[in-house]
Design a protein that fits this description.
The chain is of the alpha/beta class and 635 residues long. It is built from 26 helices and 17 strands. It has an eight-stranded mixed beta barrel. 36% of the residues are buried.
Length: 635
């Protein structure tokens, strides 16, 4: 048993040394086979001339010429298989070598023709023609050399010892065969390596190296092939566009290497959500796309839900537990046609951003989403022009102390005096600016206008502080403190009269960087306030470390504190927390006297809201303040 096993292992080893055979590409085989047929025709011409010169009998003349000529004819028949044509070509070459030997009366020089032709036969890189060629030589030297040694060998001793001569010639022929096989093996190995490299390069060109998923190029190629598939004509097709939520936070906090680890794990999970005929690819960054043939809206929604479910698992990335969430845009066409992929990708992208804004997981594309996207682009262009034309105005909402009903400052709220649409509230343009870098110059513009107004009040003998909202994007500006301090100096406004409002999410995005920037502003005397407190997810440890002077309770809790027990508890908790940290607490959204009294009862320091005063243009604010002074004087 061991002997048999060792023998099998030895045969496999030897087999590994030998070429596989039949691996030559068809195009290369055609070129080489054509060269063999031309070589046979050349032999026919040479044999005809040599036979005429030697004056051989007619029968021999016909035989000599017919061997290569008929071989070339038969080998060129397209109706025959590749193996048959190769075999005919190889046998004809070897028989032509026999003709050469006989024309040269068995001289040693004539036998060299065999040694030259066997490498030519090896060009087929196929064991069938190679074996047939070797068989012809064995028959010629072994059989004919024994029966008619004088016709094969020109030495007199060949008659007495034909097999000795056969073995001598066999040795040389075997050497030629070994050389041909080695060359064949080297060519085969080089071609295999080239094919492997080509496949690898093609794979890299069509796949994402990080996730192993197809890339955008393959997605578009597959879509093009779908266009040519008659089975898909008139069939529905869906495109899903997936974008991971808050992926930038992972890169910023944990580093890009951790972000890559997350993508490498999420990609295969998404791939398991799609169907067999679907294709899921990574477009780039944290964006993925799937093309789903024969897929209506209901099926596409089911796939999207399945995808969101699969990736919602908690992942341990470098010791940090992350809950992955994503937004999916879905676009469906009922009849797949030319150009639809580009359109569907654009529609899916629009739907994805709609899902991200709504924080609802997925959205199916609707026409009005496209309209809103176009309006958004138009709005951005108009906003840039509005900054140049100074179309933004500030309205001021008073902030009043609850203990003595004293005006201590205002919050500056931007409005857009649009040339055609009239006065626009912040909800119509701030979110658009927040999504781009435009929010930075916009915020600086608001700061300049607010400080200019504070300077005007100072000249009139009034010292009112102004609060301005500061976007998280602004804190990413390295020279933000320098720019703000330069504005204060330019307008001659003391730093303590400027209050910058940030949100809790600002802290969660990049706490260390926010801490450094805010500390520099605080050290310059500027007050820092956390706006909408209670709606975000700030860390208590960072809250304690930040140079914050004020907490502003979000209006949603203030407005519900009388009717909702949880809201009331939360308001009291924020007031207590703020006081324990030595902070002033401001309540936003005070809509009635009962809420105002309830806030005073829990110890809230400052209030603002429609019950006290709406945001007003500066002229209306001055009139409101004058009327209030009259009321206080009368009282």
């Amino acid at each position: 048993m061991t002997l048999r096993t060792n023998g099998a292992r030895t045969l496999r080893t030897i087999g590994g040394w030998l070429p596989r055979g039949s691996t030559l590409p068809q195009a290369q085989w055609e070129v080489r086979h054509r060269a063999v047929t031309y070589l046979l025709l050349f032999h026919a011409v040479v044999f005809a001339v040599a036979s005429l010169v030697k004056g051989v009998p007619l029968a021999n003349f016909i035989t000599n010429v017919s061997v290569p000529a008929l071989g070339a004819y038969a080998a060129s028949r397209g109706s025959l298989s590749r193996a048959a044509r190769s075999g005919i070509g190889a046998v004809s070459l070897m028989l032509s070598s026999s003709v050469v030997v006989h024309l040269m009366n068995g001289s040693i020089e004539g036998h060299f023709h065999f040694f030259v032709m066997i490498p030519v036969v090896a060009l087929y890189e196929d064991w069938v023609p190679f074996g047939l060629a070797v068989g012809v030589v064995l028959v010629h030297h072994g059989v004919i050399g024994t029966l008619a040694p004088g016709a094969v060998y020109d030495h007199h001793s060949a008659v007495e010892h034909p097999w000795r001569w056969a073995f001598v010639h066999a040795f040389f022929f075997a050497s030629a065969c070994v050389g041909a096989v080695i060359n064949w093996k080297l060519h085969e190995s080089a071609r295999s390596a080239e094919q492997t490299l080509t496949a690898r390069v093609r794979h890299q060109a069509h796949h994402d190296q990080l996730t192993g998923l197809p890339n955008r190029t393959q997605l578009l190629e597959r879509a093009a092939s779908m266009l040519e598939d008659p089975a898909l004509k008139g069939q529905p097709l869906a495109v899903l566009l997936v974008d991971l939520d808050r992926f930038k936070d992972v890169n910023d906090v944990l580093g890009h290497a951790s972000g890559d680890v997350l993508l490498s794990r999420v990609g295969p999970l998404m791939a398991s959500a799609v169907r067999g005929d679907d294709i899921l690819c990574r477009l780039g960054g944290d964006e993925f796309a799937a093309v789903l043939p024969r897929c209506d809206e209901e099926t596409a929604v089911a796939v999207a839900k399945r995808l969101l479910e699969l990736i919602s698992v908690t992942m341990d990335i470098d010791g940090v537990l992350l809950n992955v969430e994503a937004s999916v845009g879905i676009a469906v066409t009922h009849e797949f046609g030319e150009g639809d992929i580009d359109t569907l990708l654009r529609h899916a992208d629009i739907a994805m951003y709609a899902a991200k804004r709504a924080r609802c997981g997925f959205q199916v594309y609707e026409v009005d989403q496209d309209t809103s996207t176009r309006e958004r682009l138009n709005l951005l262009g108009e906003m840039r022009q509005a900054l140049l034309n100074d179309e933004f105005v500030l309205h001021y909402q008073p902030k009043m102390t609850l203990a003595d009903n004293r005006l201590i400052g205002v919050e500056a709220l931007a409005r857009w005096q649009h040339p055609t649409r009239g006065l626009l509230g912040p909800g119509e343009f701030i979110p658009v600016a927040e999504s781009t870098g435009l929010i930075v110059p916009f915020t600086l513009h608001v700061l300049r206008k607010a400080l200019e107004q504070v300077a005007t009040w100072q000249e009139g003998g009034s010292e009112l502080s102004v609060a301005v909202n500061l976007s998280p994007r602004c804190l990413a500006e390295i020279d933000l403190p320098e720019q703000i301090l330069a504005m204060l100096a330019a307008y001659g406004v003391p730093a303590h009269l400027l209050e910058l409002e940030i949100t809790e999410n600002t802290l969660a995005h990049d706490p260390d960087k926010a801490l450094a920037t805010l500390t520099e502003l605080h050290d310059a005397g500027i007050l820092i306030s956390i706006d909408d407190f209670g709606t975000g997810y700030s860390s208590m440890s960072y809250l304690k470390r930040l140079p914050v002077s004020e907490l502003k309770v979000d209006r949603s809790f203030v407005m519900g504190m009388l009717n909702n027990l949880d809201d009331g508890i939360l308001v009291r908790s924020v007031v207590d927390l703020g006081h324990n940290l030595g902070l002033r607490v401001v309540a936003e959204g005070v809509e009635d006297q009962e809420t105002l009294e309830a806030l005073a009862a829990v110890g809230c320091d400052v209030a603002q809201g429609y019950h006290l005063a709406r945001p007003m243009a500066v002229e209306a604010f001055e009139a409101w303040r004058s009327d209030r002074l009259v009321e206080l004087t009368v009282a």
